[in-house]
Amino acid sequence: MVATRTIARMHQAAAELRAPIPKAELHLHIEGTLEPELAFEIAARNRMSLPCADAGELRRRYRFHNLQSFLDVYYATMAVLRTEQDFADLATAYLERARSQGVRHAEIFFDPQAHSERGVGMATVVEGLWSVLGSSEQRYGISTALIACFLRDRSADAAMEALLAAMPFRDRIAAVGLDSAEVGHPPSKFVDVFDRARAEGFRCVAHAGEEGPASYIWEALDVLKVARIDHGIRCLDDPALVARLRDQQVPLTVCPLSNVRLAAVDRIEHHRLPDLIEAGLLVTVNSDDPAYFGGYIDDNYELIRNRLGIDDRQLVRLAENSFRAAFLAPQTRDGYLAELAEFSATVS
Ligand code: HPA
Ligand code: ZN
User: Fold this and answer.
1) Domains, the chain, with CATH or none
2) What is the DSSP letter of 35?
3) 117 vs 40, 75, 152, 161, 292, CA distance in Å?
4) Residues less than 5 Å from ion ligand 2, measured at CB
5) How do the residues of the chain divide into helix, strand and coil, expressed in percent and rounded to 5?
6) Quick one: pLDDT band at residue 23, thresholds 50, 70, 90?
7) For the segment 295-304, what is each residue's pLDDT rounded down to a tens digit?
8) Ligand 2 mean position to 28 CA, how many Å?
9) Long-range contacts of the stretch 125-128 (C-beta < 8 A, 24+)
10) Pocket residue to mutate for ligand 1, from 207, 234, 293, most atoms within 8 A of Cβ
């Protein structure tokens, strides 16, 4: 027992000594980085209350049994965000964490409708985030891009309204996405919105196959014509879909800790990430909503290393995939890949 604990401690110490792999984060909801302590700080200055006494109690409530049970807490907590300063503080806190986790590039989701429904407009959200993201490269050594997500459990008209509100911020928003409660809200519901977004020059991504069926992944590809699938783990139910994803090297932004915390997978040892890799898919590993799921991106890398037997060579490959799957200019991508190659040469 003592020996087991000693080995576990040595293991942890080794992990702490190891510099994190340079990587891109491609599946990260900025509202999902709102740590309870910051939520309470922002609530106090906005003279708002949260439905519990303190940050510790809020964190103890983070026990979810599916996506919806998480979304209920996620939307309730983000309601404290009201001003540009709130969004700026949120972005600053994330970038500080991201830097310590080896993130070199981050493509960051936000949920405009979750704010506009509370009377907080697109300008407040985007200006607040951008006041920090606009200089993230100089201040944190992290390049960033924003992805505006439509809430799939609201109407297609509401999504179109959000797209129109995003238009004036076209230079600050690289892509549009689709998130929130998946089952019962297939991608095809949003065909007109995505057609319009593409015509306006936005890149397109969508959550699909997190809790929903493989058919939603087909729809995201064929109807919404997305460049990446967020989550996508249910593709393994459909061999023809796996072949399609492999042949076209469509990136999947997989989030292992999230999948376990939201019970899409019953325990990490049963996560089929190794099968996705084995099938030749362009897999990336990401954090989703790290303040709620118990870890940021490098914690996910450590988790799959320790619990799924993903070795260092495969971890470097996942990091490489993250830069390949990112919306980066070729020269910038090559720079990050060169940095990664140098990193892996020094550790192997
Ligand atoms: N799935 C769908 N919607 C979300 C998620 C997620 O994992 N996180 C935040 N919004
Ligand atoms: Zn997500």
Assistant:
1) 22-347 (3.20.20.140)
2) -
3) 21, 11, 14, 12, 22
4) 288
5) 55, 15, 30
6) very high
7) 999 999 999 9
8) 6
9) 125/87, 126/166, 126/169, 126/172, 126/173, 127/84, 127/87, 128/83, 128/84, 128/85, 128/86, 128/87, 128/88, 128/90, 128/91
10) 207
